[in-house]
Design a protein that fits this description.
Layout: H1 47-72
Length: about 70
């Protein structure tokens, strides 16, 4: 069975002076930003979907007004 800790004599940076440069990895990477271009998103609705929604709303409103008119008459 192996232990997670390496043998002290073979471990990097155990010299009496401390850890020498290059024994440990850098604190953060040297690259930043995204690695691929983000596609441009379209904002808002197109003319056709808005037109269809308005037509459906108008038909429902006409139907409700006709129902109310039929109940009153």
């Amino acid at each position: 069975m192996t232990t997670p800790d390496p043998h002290p004599r073979r471990a990097p940076g155990v010299a009496p002076g401390g850890v020498s440069p290059g024994d440990t990895p850098p604190a953060e990477g040297g690259t930043y930003g995204i690695s691929y271009p983000v596609p441009e998103l379209r904002k808002g609705w197109g003319a056709m979907p808005l037109t269809l929604i308005m037509v459906v709303v108008a038909l429902i409103a006409i139907g409700l007004i006709a129902m109310v008119a039929a109940l009153i008459a």
